[in-house]
Structure formats: structure tokens, C-alpha cells
Amino acid sequence: MARITLSNLAHSYLPKPRGEADFALKEMDHVWQDGGAYALLGASGCGKTTLLNIISGLLRPSRGRVLFGERDVTDAPTAERNIAQVFQFPVVYDTMTVRENLAFPLRNRGRDAAYVEARVGQIARMIGMEGALDTRARGLTADAKQKISLGRGMVREDVNAILFDEPLTVIDPHMKWELRTQLKRLHREFGHTMIYVTHDQTEALTFADKVVVMHEGRVVQTGTPEELFETPGHTFVGYFIGSPGMNLFEAEVSGDMARVMGHPVPLGATYPPTGGRVQIGVRPEFVSLADAGLPVTIRRIEDVGRHRILRGEVFGQPVNLLLPEDRPAATGSAFLQLAPEKINVYSDDWRVQPVGARRAA
Amino acid sequence: MTLELQGVSRVVGGRVHIHPTDLVLEGGTMNVLLGPTLSGKTSLMRLMAGLDTPAEGRILWDGRDVTGVRVQDRRVAMVYQQFINYPSMSVYENIASPLRLQGRSRAEIDREVRGVAEMLKLTPMLKRKPLELSGGQQQRCALARALVKGAGLVLLDEPLANLDYKLREELRLEIPRIFEASGAIFVYATTEPEEALLLGGNTATLWQGRVTQFGPTPQVYRRPVDATTARVFSDPPMNFLPVTKTGTRLSFGHLANAPAEGAFARLADGHYLAGFRANHLALNRHSGRAVAFSCRLSAIEITGSETFLHLVHGSDGWVGLVPGVHEIAPGSEVSVWLDPAHVYLFDAEGALAAPAAYALAA
Amino acid sequence: MDKSWNNRAWFLVLPVLLLVAFSAVIPLMTVVNYSVQDTFGNNEFFWAGLEWFEETITSERIHAALGRQVLFTAIILAIEVPLGIFVALNMPKKGFWASLCLILMAMPLLIPFNVVGTIWQIFGRVDIGLLGRTLTAMGIDYNYTSDWLDAWVTVIVMDVWHWTSLVALLCYAGLQSIPEAYYQAAKIDQASRWAVFRYIELPKMRGVLLIAVLLRFMDSFMIYTEPFVVTGGGPGNSTTFLSIDLVKMAIGQFDLGPAAAFSIIYFLVILLVSWVFYTVMTNLDREDRP
């Protein structure tokens, strides 16, 4: 096991990249701590799979180095890196039995039969397939095949890291719960470094201790699920995490007061003067209907079971808010109150760090 | 416009794919087929489209029997999970293709194509080829082709399943708007309860080739007729525990009990299965009537704003969803609270014996 | 709840049945007819019963031809299948070179059989052929018209040249359908090159390989044109395979009865072997399923 360091890493699929736009992965430095559970979250084409393939050695970066512990593995082939990977679609060796599938990575490394047998039994129990060890993998369901893939990823105790590339894509919602908890448990039990690539925020947030959010080839924020939710470092993080995403309003900010089209909105902290395009962001969870405040027109109410989503407009800008299941709601004109402590200020899409607490009102 | 299924079933090689089903779908409605993989959603859609012939029963279109009518002769459009477009044609030509088949005039085609492209935000991409577009745009193109046809029945088979989470959210928002404008019967298959709720309209829950319930989506969600429907329409899965009613009391195991109020009071004494959803569990005594349960925490998942608790209560596995971030070590004992007003009672056969009190109020 | 049967569907099959009757069944019946009769010309026929069948089964001449045929088919299968797989494994996966490879590989398949024969007939000639002259110049005593071994080598090399592409192209198509993730997983599992072939590539190629072997078996077992053009079945009878022998018998000697009986047995042998082969392969496939 080892810490994984990416230093000055960048990658372009073109042989002679000209500008920054040619890079699928913009220059970055990042350290994956030993034993951490990480998620790499972003939309399709944001570079997350490129990054994963660089770590696993399936791709050689155009620039920069990859270090496992102190060892530079930038040019080392996949097999030497001692990592495991689980892919989006189940990869199983069809002609082998479940047992042979699980034993394959160990046998290839010449482990003795008794050890292999014991370890395979242990993993099979963990993925709940001890009863099916001698069935051929070919005829199994997608769920079961993906469990085998997960098991094969776990079977080696000495791996540096286990990489997951959207492993639950083909799994039914009910089964996702089971597999996700299993992964969590396996992480707790074995303490492997795990990197989990996904576009699904729920999967990322629930799996990881630290989530790395990528956007257009760049890491825009790394943080705990709570940090990403409370203080998104970039408007993209605000939009991408949470459903619906964060509300953004064009605003002018001075000190601890923001103005949206002239309407005052108190902030929870004092902000330095900023240039560029200034916006305030607040999550739908922290917006409520009130007797006074920002004028809003509610256009639509969606009942999503445990709460309602109210969709409306504030001066032509879309706004969403959440109401608890048992609270009545109606379309039409109303006023919004934004929780001051939960408002973030953005300048040209990046979060502005407040300079001090809010002055007494 | 009405599509009516009368006792329609489908049997393939001796295996029943769809049990005899009755359904009436009205024009201008969104109808969600909700169920796990292999529950029969696609089979049912194929029957509606006329791609398969039912083993039994009749399919009526505005009262006219269309059971044996070929799919080509029905006004049906279909959108699949895979993005299916003609790869060598531009987006414009893709959308125009069903109209050309109908032999419409050039001016008419142009008007319709541009109209639907505008609605689906495809106007800037009309000259491009489908494979040059993102997944979301490709699926929009397929949707546009289905809409422009002016079909009376539009079938969408998990159309968003291959898209990114966020894109799904955006299209989910657009689809009800699009369908409201068209007036056709929409049928939408999905495995996700949340998607059904967001789409609204009516929902039919499917389980092992059977439609277990059909009705307005929020009603099916809040007043499931049986435990199967409740299970299908819950994500995280619905939690269950056995209860006994004796006189005026409900006892949840030997430790917790509560007065049997409202609909519960009228039930006969005996054993029932109580079901409740994850978000109705709480870590504090949130209501005066709440009953406490002692559970072991097997895993915890934090989403940033909420916490999922994976609990073991006796021999049952439960999931709790509570607001806020809670750091609790897995393996520890926790007390969770449940308001009996959020509990559904099912009888031994799984049929609903008494709905949750809150659902009656909502 | 049984599925309702609609017998009208049979009418849809009728045109095909008629066509097959004219193109296959009636000629076949004619052959059956000849096989149980004897004729001395003048369109006079005599009942011969199973005499011709007995004669065919016991004929040493036909036994020899059958022996040569089996040997030939075995050799070309043993060469073409592994060679085809090997070529397919080493073809570029995509890009310009992949297209070029595909075109080059398809070339031999597009040449008519008698032209293939003629090409090799000339190519191998000692007086004017490039191959023949070169080999002679190198001091190798090569002459396919006089030496039986040379004739065999020539015919086999010709067949390999002509048909390995087919096996390779089919295997290539099978290989192309393997998702990249399988190779990546194998790298991560530290699988050897052999293990990748054995557990990923071969299982995925099995379906097409079955078709390739079946096609090559049937085709090579019925081979006629190319060896006939090159060697005419010689020297002696050394390259007289079953169909060459059959044609000699039917057209050369006008022994219609024995030739007809021979044809029927020939046909049944191919049918039987193909059926056995197909059943064995598909059963192997089924055993894998739980």
C-alpha cells in the first residue's frame, strides 16, 4: 500500500498539443493518501477516466510524474503497479467458474494453492457468492458478474490501490444499495486506498471520505461531502452536487450585504470587494417561503415523495426550493428568504473567501 | 384518445412474461411503468406498440380493436435506452425522416422540424451528425424524431438510463413540458422511484410481470395497495417489521408499542407487517407519539446534507435517511424513532390493511 | 395459455419450398434414380438395386481417394485454422493499416477458383513459372507434374494461400467485438499472453471459429477446381481427391450408376461429419450454462 502522488500531471490525446484546450487533463498536483476512500466525480468527458487510466498505467501522461510512495511509476506498466481495477461493465472470464475467476489474479502471481483457496473463500463470503463458487461465470446475471468483478478487485491483499470505474452503472437501484454498503465495509475491513470514478453524486458522496470534483479536465474542488455541500468552491460544484443544484443569482456584494436587482440580501459573513462577475449561491435546502424578501413567481410544484420541489423565477433567474413533505404549497407570487449563513459568494465562478464574521445587525 | 388493454397477457415458450393486465391510458397523460429489471416493463411496451401480439386479451385504440394491427399501421413512436439515430444523416434529416415517410410537403416538414428542434434546444445542432453530439443531445434528437411523428402513443423505454446524472435531471424536467404540449399518450419505463415521482402523471408499478397498482403517481407512492408495490416504489428500499395488534395497542416486537389510532383502531387483532420509508426514521424524538427502536448501525453514508443509516433491527435490515451530517461509528448501538403515523400495515398476504395516517392527510 | 397456431403462415414458405424443390430436391432424386439403375446408353435403364452402393463401399479406388481426401482436409485445417487465428491476432486493430490489411486479406477470396488454379499452375511450372524456376535455380528438385510430394505441397500451399484469409477475417471480426476493458483487466490481473488468448480471446472467438472450421471442412472436402487445374489429379492418382475421382467416373467413363451411388454416399458423409461437428461444438457451448 502506498500514497499516490501526481505531480505536474497533464495529458493530451494529441501528439503535439498546442493550447490548453488540447489537453484532456489540465496540469494538476494531487496526493491520494494511503488508505483513503476517494471519489472522482464529474460529467462525461471531464477527464476523470483519463486520470484513472493514468494512475492504473493504461495511459502514459504527456507531462508530469506519477509516484506510488517514493517510487516513480510513470513509465511502469500496469502489471508492475500492483493495483486492481473494476470496470463499468462486468469483466469476467466467461469460461472459468466463479472460483477460478476470483483466484485468477492470485494464481498469476504464483501464490500457493492453500492461500488461494482460503482467500477466495473469504472474498466469496464477503460478496455473498460462496454458494455459487463452482458455477460457470458465463450464465450469471449482470449483478452477479459485477460482484465477481468487485471480488476479483479485492482478492489481492497487497494492492497499492483499488480503482473503480463507474462500477454500479448496470446495477438495479435496489442492488446498488447492497453493493455500495459492501464496498464501504470492505474498505473498512481492509483499508485499501480506493478511488471511485462516477458521474453520480449520490454514489460519490456516500462512498467517499474525500470527493474530488472534476470539470473540463481540471480538479475544481477536493473536499468532504459536507464541504462540497456547504461551501462549493466553484459554481460547477454547486450545480453538480445536490439535486436540484445550487441557486445562483447575479448580485452586487459589499461587506456583509448582497443586492439582487436592488433587493438587499443579508450575508452570513463579510466579503472583500471583488471584481468580475459576482453571483451569490444558495442551495434549495436553505431557501424558504416568507412574508417578505426576494419576490418570486412559483411556476411549478413537483412532489418527489419525501419533499416537494418548488420551481420558480426571481427577476427572470431560475430558482428552486425544497419544502418538506407535509407542508402545503401553491403556485403564484411569493417572497423568498435565503438563510444568510448558507449563502456563498462567487466571483467569475470561483468562491470568494469571506474576510470576517458578519457585523452585528 | 384512449389506449385500453383488456386482459392482455404475453407468454413466451411457456413462460409468462406478462400476466393478464387491464389498463386504460388517456390521451395527454404521462404514464410511468415503474419496476426493477425484468419486471415486464419492456414486454408491456412492446404489446402496447404492437411489436408483439398478446397471448390473450385485446388492445383497443379509441374503442377500436387493434390487437392484430401491425406496428407500422399504428401511430406509435418509441425511444430507447440506446441513442438510436441515423448516423449518416444530419440532425435535421433525422428529425425530418418520419415526416418524409408520411409524404409531407417540404415547407411543412421544415416548419415542424424547426419547431420541435426549438423545443428540444437542438436548433444550433441541426446541421451536425448525431455522433458529433453529446449523449444528451443525441437522446434529444431521438426524442425529437419521436415527437415530430405526431404519434398518438409515445413509448419511452428508460430513455435517460445511459445519460449522466445531471443531464438526466435536466431532461427529466423537460420531458413533462414537452409531453404537455403534444397531447399524446406517453408511456415511460424506469427502474427509479425518484424518476417516477419527478415525472408525475400516473404510475403503474410492475413486479414479476404483473401490474400491482395503477393510479396518480403521488397516490401510488403514498397509498400503495400492497407490500410489493410499496417495495417497488421506495428507494432506499422500504423497511419492514412484524407488529401485533391487541385491543387498542400495537406492539412492535416486545419492547416498543404504541396506541392503535385512526385506521389502525378498526383493524382486527392479529399479526401484521409494518412498512415505513427511510426518511421517516429519526435520530431524535421528533414527535410526541414516536416509538424508539434500538438498532445496530452496520454502515453509514453521508451525502453532505443528509446521512444514510444502515441499521440492523433484530433480523431485519433497515435504511434510515436523516437530515444533516451525523458521524456515528459503525457497529455501535443507536436509537431511532418512528412516528406510527408514518407506518403502513400489511396483512399476511401482503395486502394493505391500513394506510399510514400521514398519507391520508396528504 | 398455449400460443395460438396460425397455419396460414405455411403458405408464406411455399415459394421457397418450390424453389428448393427445383434446385435441389429434383436433381437429388435424379441422382438417386441413377444410383439404383444401370444403363448401356440408348436411354435404356435396368434395375440394379444396391449393387452400385456395394461396389462403391468396397471399391479400393474410392477408398484410396477418400484416404487422400481426409488427409488433405486434415492438413489444411491443421494449417489454416491456427494460421488464421495467428494472423488475426497480429492484425492492426484500427486505423489505415487495419483497412489496408483487410483489403489485402480479402483479395484471394475474390479470385475465381479456376483462376486460382491457373495462377498456381503457371506459378509453379518449372519452365516459365516464377516459383518453379526459382526453386530449380536454387538447386531444389521441384516438379509438381512428376513428383507426388511436390504436387501435394503445391496444392496445399495453394489452398492455404487461398483460404487462410477467410479464417483470419472471421477471427478478426470475433476479436474486434471484445471490449477494451477485458484487456485492461487482464493486464491488471497480470495474465500472461497465453492466458489472455486462452481465457479472453479464444472464448470470444469460439462462435466464429466454429463457422470457420465448418466452412473450411465442407469446402476442402469437396475441393475440385483448383487441384484439377493444377495437377489434374496427378501425378498418377496422387492428388485425385473425391470429387475429381467422381467426375472422372461420371464424365470420363460415363459410369452413371456407380457415380450416382458415389455422390450420394459422398453427400451423406459430408452431412454426417458436419452434423457431428456442429452438435459437438454447440453442446460444448451449452455445458457452460448452468
UniProtKB/TrEMBL annotation, chain A:
<keyword id="KW-0067">ATP-binding</keyword>
<keyword id="KW-0813">Transport</keyword>
<protein>
    <submittedName>
        <fullName>Carbohydrate ABC transporter ATP-binding protein (CUT1 family)</fullName>
    </submittedName>
</protein>
<dbReference type="InterPro" id="IPR012340">
    <property type="entry name" value="NA-bd_OB-fold"/>
</dbReference>
<dbReference type="InterPro" id="IPR003593">
    <property type="entry name" value="AAA+_ATPase"/>
</dbReference>
<dbReference type="InterPro" id="IPR040582">
    <property type="entry name" value="OB_MalK-like"/>
</dbReference>
<dbReference type="GO" id="GO:0055052">
    <property type="term" value="C:ATP-binding cassette (ABC) transporter complex, substrate-binding subunit-containing"/>
</dbReference>
<keyword id="KW-0472">Membrane</keyword>
<dbReference type="Pfam" id="PF17912">
    <property type="entry name" value="OB_MalK"/>
</dbReference>
<dbReference type="GO" id="GO:0015408">
    <property type="term" value="F:ABC-type ferric iron transporter activity"/>
</dbReference>
<dbReference type="GO" id="GO:0005524">
    <property type="term" value="F:ATP binding"/>
</dbReference>
<keyword id="KW-1003">Cell membrane</keyword>
<keyword id="KW-0547">Nucleotide-binding</keyword>
<dbReference type="InterPro" id="IPR047641">
    <property type="entry name" value="ABC_transpr_MalK/UgpC-like"/>
</dbReference>
<dbReference type="InterPro" id="IPR027417">
    <property type="entry name" value="P-loop_NTPase"/>
</dbReference>
From TrEMBL, chain B:
<keyword id="KW-0472">Membrane</keyword>
<keyword id="KW-0067">ATP-binding</keyword>
<dbReference type="Pfam" id="PF08402">
    <property type="entry name" value="TOBE_2"/>
</dbReference>
<dbReference type="Pfam" id="PF00005">
    <property type="entry name" value="ABC_tran"/>
</dbReference>
<protein>
    <submittedName>
        <fullName>Carbohydrate ABC transporter ATP-binding protein (CUT1 family)</fullName>
    </submittedName>
</protein>
<dbReference type="GO" id="GO:0055052">
    <property type="term" value="C:ATP-binding cassette (ABC) transporter complex, substrate-binding subunit-containing"/>
</dbReference>
<dbReference type="InterPro" id="IPR013611">
    <property type="entry name" value="Transp-assoc_OB_typ2"/>
</dbReference>
<keyword id="KW-1003">Cell membrane</keyword>
<keyword id="KW-0813">Transport</keyword>
<comment type="similarity">
    <text>Belongs to the ABC transporter superfamily.</text>
</comment>
<dbReference type="InterPro" id="IPR047641">
    <property type="entry name" value="ABC_transpr_MalK/UgpC-like"/>
</dbReference>
<dbReference type="GO" id="GO:0005524">
    <property type="term" value="F:ATP binding"/>
</dbReference>
<dbReference type="GO" id="GO:0016887">
    <property type="term" value="F:ATP hydrolysis activity"/>
</dbReference>
<dbReference type="InterPro" id="IPR008995">
    <property type="entry name" value="Mo/tungstate-bd_C_term_dom"/>
</dbReference>
<dbReference type="InterPro" id="IPR012340">
    <property type="entry name" value="NA-bd_OB-fold"/>
</dbReference>
UniProtKB/TrEMBL annotation, chain C:
<feature type="transmembrane region" description="Helical">
    <location>
        <begin position="151"/>
        <end position="175"/>
    </location>
</feature>
<protein>
    <submittedName>
        <fullName>Carbohydrate ABC transporter membrane protein 1 (CUT1 family)</fullName>
    </submittedName>
</protein>
<dbReference type="InterPro" id="IPR052730">
    <property type="entry name" value="Sugar_ABC_transporter"/>
</dbReference>
<dbReference type="GO" id="GO:0055085">
    <property type="term" value="P:transmembrane transport"/>
</dbReference>
<dbReference type="InterPro" id="IPR035906">
    <property type="entry name" value="MetI-like_sf"/>
</dbReference>
<feature type="transmembrane region" description="Helical">
    <location>
        <begin position="207"/>
        <end position="225"/>
    </location>
</feature>
<keyword id="KW-1133">Transmembrane helix</keyword>
<keyword id="KW-0472">Membrane</keyword>
<dbReference type="InterPro" id="IPR000515">
    <property type="entry name" value="MetI-like"/>
</dbReference>
<comment type="similarity">
    <text>Belongs to the binding-protein-dependent transport system permease family.</text>
</comment>
<dbReference type="GO" id="GO:0005886">
    <property type="term" value="C:plasma membrane"/>
</dbReference>
<keyword id="KW-0812">Transmembrane</keyword>
<dbReference type="Pfam" id="PF00528">
    <property type="entry name" value="BPD_transp_1"/>
</dbReference>
<keyword id="KW-0813">Transport</keyword>
<feature type="transmembrane region" description="Helical">
    <location>
        <begin position="70"/>
        <end position="89"/>
    </location>
</feature>
